[in-house]
Amino acid sequence: MFTKEDLRQFKSKNISVKEAESQIDRFKNGFAPVKVVRPAVIKDGIKRINDAELQKYSKAYAKSLQSGVKVSKFVPASGAATRMFKELFVYNENPEPFKNLIHNSLIVNVIQLLPRFAFYTMVKDVISSYNLDNLHVRKSRAPEIINAILSPDGLNYGALPKGLVHFHKYPGKSRTAMEEHLIEGLHYAKNSDAMVKIHFTVSPEHKTLFTEKLYSEGPVIENFNEVGLDVSFSFQKPHTDTIAVDQSNNPFRDENGELVFRPGGHGALIENLNEIDADIIFIKNIDNVVPEHLLEITVKYKNAIGGILIGLRDEIHSLLEKLDNGENNELLTEIEKFINKELNTKLPVGFDKKTPGEKADYLRKFLNRPIRVCGMVKNEGEPGGGPFWVLDGNKQESLQILESSQINLKDKFQEAQFKASTHFNPVDLVCCPKNYKGKKFDLTKYCDPETGFISEKSVNGKPIKALELPGLWNGAMANWITVFVEVPIETFNPVKTILDLLRPQHQPAN
Predict the structure, then answer these.
(1) What value does the CA radius of gyration of the chain take, rounded to a whole number of Å?
(2) Among the residues of 274-400, which ranges form H helices?
(3) Whole-prediction pTM value?
(4) 253-261: long-range pairs with CB below 8 Å, 24+
(5) Is 60 helix (H, G, I), strand (E, B) or coil?
(6) pLDDT digits over 124-166, tens only?
């Protein structure tokens, strides 16, 4: 099936022939859908906290930072802004006079409301020959304006990652999404030595641009806030790329006869996360940021879920240390009660029939895993994975974040569980990647390889199938200890299209 040139490609990516053949088999056989038991809801899988608890957990988190707990922030930021400007690309290829455009279309809104965007002054600098403050001038120059936003001769947003697009306007300046993450990190990722640790995963071709932005704006942030920024970058590992196939599940080749590989999706980033040296790691998407004047509620809940994680971690580690000193019925009962109450989980059928030694072994394995606390927002129509109860291989119920593509919606029972879901995941996580002895877990050992999915793509107009690895906060964390906590919708402000930047959550203070 594979040629000598194919083998050279495999070697360059550190992918074995066996792995490539396994991926092709996966295309042929597909993935079995996850069997949902029921949706996670308030009091059954999702914890709701009141104001008093919010303060309690926030204080616990602050105390842990003062005691020397090492915290970091992890931001997947390799995504291009292409989708954000999709309709601008279409218009740029076939520009039309403004008068011919459909009323209230995206392009019409961009031109009419251009002064409200954070990058407006930059566009004016590019098209300095015209008075763009005049709406009639903007209408007459619509093609030039859209081209200025996208092209290398202008802002080059058509080729930039979303993290380097200017999201928010401030007096005399504007900030990119990357800068907003640095500012946000000051409030919950600042260590006891006043260093703010933040890690961005980026594409190799964009690292220089991210670094230049850090070097130009970082010192200003450091001096004004009296902190140090410890910012690092990494790339998705080449061996996590997956082979593409045609509609008959044969390896797809480009015009030069070479195999085509595609990035394995954000699930590949579990390997990057695995390399972060911290006691506590927050994870948040690059486009989910707000201007500084709206940060308060986000920071409150970040600190709170951090405190919840610290409390769980300390209790779990204490129970594991007690187990090391010898199990007894009283301790086993204490652990069972903790799992039932704090992890909201019932032990599998037949657990009570095990011997004390068997119970201790099971509970030790159950507790000695990475821990994550995930924010969940009430579902108000936004896209995102949902929280569900599923059965694992031991017939133990576990909490999982599932995408609709992982559920068999043709099955009436599964469809009913999906529709009964009340919350979704805004990618708001805080993790503990170390065990009770202070050693890092190998996070790649806690993935569920059966939770990937196959997507339809195209290369040069030809249809292909692509293999997506289990998502970073989905199957890549399937075997973690998981707790879901309700967080306000105000903490979720993604930017999926350019018009999202006109939402009140992304506009300047009055």
Answers:
(1) 25
(2) 296-324, 329-342, 356-367
(3) 0.94
(4) 254/459, 254/460, 255/460, 257/5, 258/5, 258/9, 259/6, 259/9, 260/459, 260/464, 261/9, 261/13
(5) helix
(6) 999 999 999 999 999 999 999 999 999 999 999 999 999 999 9
Nearest CA-CA partner of 354 in 342, 344, 366, 371 = 366
Backbone dihedral region for residue 68 (phi beyond 0: left; psi -120 to 50: alpha; all else: beta)? left
Cβ contact 148:123 at 8 Å: yes
How many other C-beta atoms can be found within 10 angstroms of the C-beta atom of residue 102?
8
Q: Residue 354's CB: how many other CB atoms inside 10 A?
A: 16
CB-based burial of residue 55 (10 Å sphere; 0-12 exposed, 13-18 middle, 19+ buried)?
Answer: middle
Q: How are the residues of the chain apportioned to helix, strand and coil, as percentages rounded to the nearest 5?
A: 45, 20, 35
What is the band of 346 on the pLDDT scale with cuts at 50, 70, 90?
Answer: confident
Q: How many CB atoms lie within 10 A of CB 17?
A: 13
Contacts of 438 (CB under 8 A, 6+ apart): none
Please tell me the distance from the alpha carbon of residue 131 to that of residue 141, in angstroms, as a whole number: 10
Residue 461 has pLDDT above 90, yes or no: no
C-alpha separations of 71 from 270, 313, 411, 430, 459 in Å? 18, 14, 43, 10, 41
pLDDT, tens digit (0-9, with 9 covering 90-100), for 43-78: 999 999 999 999 999 999 999 999 999 999 999 999
